[in-house]
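Repro:
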Amino acid sequence: MSRRVVITGLGAFTSIGTTVEEFWRGCLNGSTSVADIPSKWNDFHHYSSRVWSPLPSLRNNSRIVNDIERTKLDTAAVLAMETAAEALHNAGLPPSLVDAKRNAYTLAEVDSARTGVFLGTGVGGLNSLLSNAAHHMLSLQQQRLQELAKLLASPEKNEQGLQIVERIASDILIPFRTNPFVVSMIMPNAVSSNIAIKFGIHGPAQTSCSACSSGTVAIGNAFQALRGGGIDMAIAGGVEYLCDEYGMVFRGFDVAKTLVSQGKQPFSHDQLNRPFDRDRSGFLFSQGGCGIMVLEDLEHARKRNANIICEIAAYSETCDGYNIMMMQPNGQQITRMLTQLLQSAGCAGQDVDYVNAHGTGTLLNDATEAEIIEHLFGKKVLVNSTKSLLGHAIGASGALGALVTALSIRHNTTHACKNLQNPVRDLNFVRSVGNHSIRTAVTQSFAFGGHNAALLLKAVA
């Protein structure tokens, strides 16, 4: 018989709150963080989208990672470790320091061999890769160009300048200097393995890399491992950090025309992000974020008298097998995924009270998703998009949506779908904060590559 899986702890680091309590309060207040893109990025490209959603400083919120470790870790790994520590504290499992030299911790009353780590990320340590690659490729060239500038400013002949230019061409692939930890910094698996190292966890440590569905897939994999009996507890969620100095990642999405733009409407910065609205123009690029859950076997949680938030009843995933960047227009594989999800949970569509939608604000995705929701769940189900507040945090977005769904069940309250004035479809979108009886909810993610994933959460009787 399959075991039941419950959520006992949550942690969050987002643009609108650096703890789960702040994050939830920000959601209910309709908070957003929208700003002009860094001015330096404009030196490298003329962007169609001019805004993003920046994160607060992580250094001001450090709980468990010291300054020495920060020199060896990508920011995504730091985010994951700090947020995991909060989730563990909130689950009643505060980490205890066991080795001050290594700054290593342990979890009391937890069997480390039967505890796993399941993290999702879209690009892992991409920020470290880009910064080290830029240093590797450009530092020597910068030195040579400085020499050339001095020479050309002198009365000497330009023949020597030509020689320097030739040296620049020949040296362009010669390495200069990189962070000695760069390999371990850029590995996507570092986000999960560093959590295992920090807290002395010896069960499976897996990283899911499924683009924007990564966080949902990671929680789903943890759910399956727990339900199957291989482990008793898991740290699961998603993390992303996208802020290279040159705006390269932002540019990639911008040239693909997936980001918010001003268009014909005179919207202010915080009105541009409009999931499910007919005036939507794309998604709001987020600097990143992290959402972490502590999951447990129900009996394991009850034995230690844990505070149970809600239950994960089912998980399902499919792949469109259609296009690397575009959703299948008819949504066939998403429909199949959600049908499987309902069957696995023993539910019908009309039993679902709330859907935390993928809801990016892109033209095709929102229209297709809204049509599928109406077809499977009807017009009465509450529908929301947390990305209307946060923007799109890529690999962290699914986990943050799952956190919001769990909190909505816990508090029987939902945040509003912000900037929704002219809905793309006649559905029961959450237009204002309110109390609702939410016993069963679905949170779903779709991604580049055609990755579709969804979780069904229930209140625990």
